[in-house]
Amino acid sequence: MPLFNTPHNERYFAQVQSAFGIINNTSNVWAPAGAQLLRVNDGSTSITAVVPITPQDWKTGTRSSLPGIIGRRSASWSLNNVLIVPSGTAGTAPDIDALLQALFWNPPTPSVGISQTYTFNDSPVSPIPITLLKFTHGSTTLTQKVICNAICDQASFTFNQNTFEGSFSGTGFYVIDNDNFANEDTTGKCGLTAFPLEPSSPAIHGAIIPGFLGQVCYSTGATIPSFGTNPLDPTTAPIIGMSTSIRTGNILYNDGIYYGYPIASGGGPRLADLTLDFMDSDSSALIAIKNAAKSKTVLNFGVQISNTQAGAAGYTVQFYFMQVQLNIPSMADDTARIKTSFGASPAHTTAQANTDDCSIKFT
């Protein structure tokens, strides 16, 4: 009788990749250094090889078709509802570091013993690729998958949930699996001669935090928001819903005459936006925000999520959105209250040469 698979036995790892189309290796055997176990929820993941068929459309003399040939190969992936967990030690990167590097096209900027800050960067030639590995724990016969050169083209974060989570997705060079590895060509094996084995004793860092403990504040002009100044809280303008979506513009080019796999990666325009839901009131803070939306006056927003309302060292995540031009709000009944919603509103940089539209800091 076959051994049946179950999602509860899956483990996902992420690793920053050193070379295009090549999984990190030592003598063509996967080198697991830096591969980090991710806390991914059930039923929320996908790693898929894209192997299209190019049909034979020539006039054969019948209306039936002949088998096609393999087209240009690539991959797609998504990790939804990934737990955003600070490391537990101030100044240390979180376990999702590889995902954030892929998102921001940039390693974090460290402040020793204090913080790790992720900001956008345009200077590298191409996005930071990562390797994503899915192992079925305790089995080598069930299907395991590895995506080489995963590029993050979109991420989203939803605040005010029971746990703090984010979702990441994108494309990739190719997906290998243990079932078919021996049949892949040299390029499709992504630099390996053996399929990777699951790390034996993976560590995780930090403790899960709720998505509703924290602070929100705003500022005007080009001033970075400061928590405690211009707060948006139950005494001013209570926020009852908040989310952000980041579209990176990162792409893989798969149109070259070479080996039928992607040939390079690059980046197009990116966009970070912010959605805000308020409990409607006559507060001066909310009226000021409504007026800014109508005049398209830019505002800057800071969001801090932690294991305490005030924030604790090693367990705090801060998001900054600069130069947000809010959309005109809608108002709707929400049980016994009115909800004022500012739909997805774009953030911008503070100056032409800057890339500070959105950043994430772990403290």
Q: What is the H/E order?
A: EEEEEEEEHEEEEEEEEEEEHEEEEE
Share of helix, binned: under 10%
Strand content: 35-45%
| First-residue to last-residue Cα separation | 51 Å
| Structural class by helix and strand composition | mainly beta
Can you give the mean pLDDT? 95
Low-pLDDT parts are none
Broad shape: globular
> What is the strand tally?
24
| Helix count from the secondary structure assignment | 2
Structural Rg: 23 Å
Describe the structure.
By secondary structure, the protein is mostly beta strands. The chain has 2 helices and 24 strands. The strands form 5 sheets. Strands 1, 4, 5, 8, 11, 12, 13, 14, 16, 19, 22 and 23 form a 12-stranded antiparallel sheet that branches. The chain has a 6-stranded antiparallel sheet with strand order 9-10-24-21-20-15, covered by helices on one side.
